[in-house]
Amino acid sequence: MGETELIERARAGDADAFGELVERHKVAVYRAARAALRSADEAEDVAQDAFVAAYRKLGQFRGDASFKTWLLAITWNVARSRRRTTWLWLQRFQPHDERAAAEPPAPGESHEAVLIQADLGDQVRRAVMTLPPKFRDVMLLAASGDHTMEEIGAVLGIPSGTVKWRLSEGRRHLKARLVRMGIGHE
Hints:
Shape: elongated
Radius of gyration: 19 Å
Largest sheet: none
Number of helices: 10
Number of strands: 0
Structural class: mainly alpha
């Protein structure tokens, strides 16, 4: 069944049709939420909240963009709201993955190398989170690897050319911050 038909059936109250839309887009929605938030649990909650919001707003979907893009915009807005909470703000500055210290290193890799890599990842993530939102949001969505420049633009409400520029500028700002932190070189 085509997406347009599923949308129309879901609007008419067909829960199975909406369930099919969820199935088709759940990975992209989760990845968008995960790009905005560090916590897998938070991303799952946001994905669920986004689907609930989409169901409630289904009558407002005009079809100007694809259903996926519309859904990702809702997801991004829900994630941004969640990201603003004080608790999550504090969580972002805790070690990214404490399991790295408990997991055995890969063959040929020392435990020390695993810890150093985890620490480096935490420093880079903290540096990304200090970027201005217009650069940070584009970088987070692009880093998820699940969205085209056009989709990112639609989610953020900006042209795809602006997405490309912000991504380039964000990378430049990030590199400068990392160099100032003693990570990397010019």
